[in-house]
Amino acid sequence: MTTLRAITGTRDILPEEVSAWHRIEAVARTLFARYGYREIRTPVFETTELFARGIGADTDIVAKEMYTFDDRDGASVTLRPEATAGIVRAVIEHNLMNTDPALKVYALGSMFRRERPQKGRYRQFHQVDVEAFGLSRPSIDVEVIEVALAYLEACGLTRFELVLNSVGDAKCRPAYVETLRTELRRSASKLCADCQRRIETNPLRVLDCKVPGDQAIIDALPRISDHLCGECRDHFAEVRRELNLLGIPYRLSHRLVRGLDYYTRTTFEVVSGELGSQNSVLGGGRYDGLVKDLGGPDLTGIGFALGMERLVMLLPEQVIAGRCDVFLAPLVPAALDKALLLQRALRRAGFAVLMDPEGRSFKSQMKRADKLGARFVLILGEDEMAKGVWTLRDMAGSSQAEVKDDAVTGHLMEKLNG
Ligand code: HAM
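^ thats the input. predicted complex w/ histidyl-adenosine monophosphate below
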């Protein structure tokens, strides 16, 4: 019989890793609330058209990475490859900007892209996603970047780099794209096959190319920073001024065009040298035309998404055992009933209680309590049964005392809460 295995590119998050996930999820919720962001949860699958229109037909994501299938009624649906398009759809569908013209939301969840799996790159992965709508001044660009960095720091990360660019807008980018195309046609034969195709379909994507042989040509191409219109230039200058004001360091990269087509003006990524080739921890930017393109009002937007697997990989190693306040050790069969009753009462009182009901020896039960990191052990042997007491052992202090049956809960409350 063949062994059943997880699908290539998906992975199990096992109990020993899950505490790191709990931590980064909890930090997200507390930190984002401090900046006025509220959680939104959108479906894991949406109409294929949403992503094709939102992300762009000639992006790698839409062209080759989406999990798309026909539903039983023939409708084409897609597992979300990212969160932004679905959130924008929800904002439009529920008119969220009417109730809150400066809408700030965040989301946590699974995304799906059929990429070639490698370290830090999966086919099902998780993102923390943050979006702000209806704010057009550069200060919100800076706030979103600050939230991203504050989040990394609150999770315990210290070494990372912010990379920044502006990709212009609908006014200035088309002319730049044409300049780029003309320039690229001249060296087309020396570029990789993908880039040759992109010259005609989407020349900006060439700037994303990682093929070593193409790099010298790409580095010598005209730069978007020299082709921004006055408004985009001013916007970008103000973003940089405010970043400097807040003491946030960054590196400018004219090649940071990002892999999705909806971006306008500010784009950014945070990279870490410790991640290997998939070095981007998070990425985002402004997308002022997206809400309108998807059938909504002319509403600006900006946000970022962080890869949770990558963040967990960067966290300092921490083995966090599950919580165990009290371990119950009934040493004789007759002690079982009292132990079961006390276990239930203590759990109802809010304690994390574990017990080994298999009737093992005192020594092996104490070993188990130790392994579980129990704060206290309550022992019930023949002596204790006869006296109507429990022996309470404080594992940290290695001290031991007898406590009367009816005083156990109160006694533990005092010790554990005090
Ligand atoms: P993205 O750059 O495609 O942007 O993805 C953001 C982050 O998700 C990446 O930096 C990476 O950490 C993680 N990620 C992406 N693909 C994978 C994968 N296959 N395996 C593991 N992690 C991955 C977006 O998704 C945009 N929606 C971000 C955004 C939000 N822009 C504006 N608002």
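The two ends are 56 Å apart (CA to CA).
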